[in-house]
Write a structure and sequence with these properties.
single chain, mainly alpha, 10 helices, elongated
């Protein structure tokens, strides 16, 4: 058996194979989520622009309103914890220190994103707005809703910092892929480009939203490719089967 065809999963440690398998499944689910998000944006539209629009959506159809207020993203984000655990399990021998740093950065980033106000925060305000009997009360509730939209997982300081940390971790874990034979070079380069563009999107978006939108438009489809490549490889590592590094 050639060097490239040797199993890279550690047969003496089933826990590492389990983590690879869990990470692979998470990547597959993230592919489904990404495709569903593209369909949702095309059919239903994006996030409401104002609190009044958000309240109207929630009152007309609570499920559709929550979807446009990014509830699917809230549910999908924790999958990054599992994905990076799987990546660490697969790459710990290539460069354990960098793999751990990348995983830690991603974990902190996801936690910051999940800690920001989200669509669920609008539910109570929407119900109170519908029940309000005075203009003053409605104005106060609209102001509270605008504050939530301004500090949500796409706009708040914590969210921006969380996104930067998550994407920095993803770029770093892709660099680690280049240093070993666990993942193919193609997977590593797709990861560097994809998450590098998203990282630039988060930073440039602070000063030039139009350029940031263009960067994300390029990175979006690449995410599908990266998730597929990473998920396929992690699932094979999880089964403990020999697999050439070119796969």
């Amino acid at each position: 058996m050639s060097e490239q065809e040797r199993p890279v999963a550690d047969p003496s440690a089933p826990i590492w194979r389990d983590l690879c398998r869990i990470g692979g499944v998470s990547a597959v689910v993230l592919v489904v989520y990404s495709l569903a998000t593209m369909v949702q944006l095309a059919v239903l539209g994006g996030q409401p622009a104002t609190a009044a629009e958000a309240f109207g959506l929630l009152q007309a159809n609570r499920v559709l309103g929550l979807m446009r207020l990014d509830l699917p993203t809230v549910l999908a984000m924790p999958l990054y914890y599992l994905l990076f655990l799987g990546l660490f399990a697969g790459l710990r021998r290539a460069n354990g220190a960098l793999a751990m740093l990348a995983t830690g950065s991603a974990f902190v980033g996801v936690t910051l994103l999940l800690a920001t106000p989200m669509g669920l925060s609008m539910l109570s305000l929407s119900d109170k707005y519908a029940a309000a009997t005075t203009d003053e009360a409605r104005h106060q509730l609209l102001a509270a809703g605008e504050a939530i939209l301004a500090t949500d997982m796409w706009h708040g300081t914590g969210a921006i910092l969380g996104s930067i940390l998550l994407e920095s971790g993803a770029v770093l874990i892709s660099v680690v892929m280049l240093r070993g034979s666990v993942f193919s070079k193609a997977t590593a380069y797709v990861g560097i480009v994809t998450h590098g563009l998203d990282l630039a999107h988060g930073v440039i978006g602070l000063v030039n939203p139009k350029v940031a939108f263009l960067l994300m438009a390029i990175a979006g489809p690449l995410y599908l490719v990266w998730f597929v490549l990473v998920g396929r490889r992690l699932l094979r590592l999880g089964r403990g089967q020999p697999f050439p590094s070119s796969g």
